[in-house]
Specification:
- The structure is a single chain.
- By secondary structure, the protein is an alpha+beta fold.
- The protein folds into 2 domains: 2-132, Jelly Rolls, CATH 2.60.120; 143-234, Homeodomain-like (Arc Repressor Mutant, subunit A), CATH 1.10.10.
- Helices cover 46% and strands 24% of the residues.
Length: 250
């Protein structure tokens, strides 16, 4: 089982087999073990029964997990929730979640095993935010930002540069980037990268070869696509794709 949920500022996975040798990436990572306990090592320190935790961005870690089910999500550190978690960790390499909180979260995570849908994912995410004390901001969208989101929703293009979209919307690149970050809660550059990954994975699931999918999504080469997957998700591309189901949840 490998269920991947594609969100605005995070990519989540519910899986029964997760193995990653020592690596680091630019995203904050969350782990919640639902069945069995993973082997997680942070730097040279092996954690004792890590049921639920955050691992900070750019921190070397390894994960070995099988014969059970684990939920993990990589979170963009420029997003509202990423900034909140950064403050929570206070510069530490990782942050262990209280066992009682982990049990509460597990209760809401189990329905995702039975049903692969947006509702069960959003319910879990809301409970996660509630138990962490995070309150998502309500925003009024500028029409240029809603216009950009619509362009990306219908996107079938190779060029995902900020300059291109700024020109289409008749706004400066700096103003567009500022508005987007303020109103969507994630940097425009990060959003575009996650959007490109989504486009590539969708294309692969529809039958395209990896090289074709990467190029059509605007990556300069298959190796650029693979490096981006590794940097953001911490897993090799082919392992991410294998036996996976993808669901857009925003």
């Amino acid at each position: 089982m490998n269920q991947i949920y594609w969100d605005v500022s995070q990519i989540s996975m519910l899986t029964d087999n997760l193995g990653a040798s020592t690596h680091s990436h630019g995203m904050v990572q969350f782990f919640l073990a639902l069945e069995n306990i993973p082997d997680i090592q942070i730097g040279r320190k092996k954690l004792d029964k890590p049921i639920c935790l955050f691992v900070n961005k750019n921190v070397k870690h390894s994960v070995k997990f099988h014969d059970g089910i684990i939920f993990t999500t990589v979170i963009d550190p420029t997003s509202d929730i990423g900034i909140f978690i950064d403050a929570l960790m206070n510069g530490n390499e990782y942050y262990l979640i209280d066992t009682d909180v982990a049990k509460k979260l597990s209760k809401y995570a189990y329905p995702m095993i039975e049903t692969f849908d947006k509702e069960s994912y959003v319910t879990f995410l809301n409970q996660m935010y509630l138990n962490l004390g995070f309150q998502p901001r309500e925003r009024q969208m500028d029409e240029r930002i809603t216009g950009l989101l619509k362009i990306l929703e219908d996107c079938n293009c190779f060029d995902h540069s900020v300059e291109k979209y700024a020109e289409e919307l008749d706004i400066s690149t700096s103003r567009l980037s500022h508005l987007f970050s303020e109103q969507v809660g994630i940097s425009l550059k990060s959003y575009l990268t996650i959007h490109q990954l989504e486009k590539a994975f969708q294309s692969i699931l529809e039958g395209s070869r990896l090289t074709e999918a990467a190029m059509n999504a605007g990556f300069g080469s298959p190796s650029h696509f693979a490096a981006t997957v590794k940097r953001l998700m911490g897993l090799p591309t082919r392992k991410t794709i294998k036996d996976s189901r993808f669901l857009k949840v925003y």
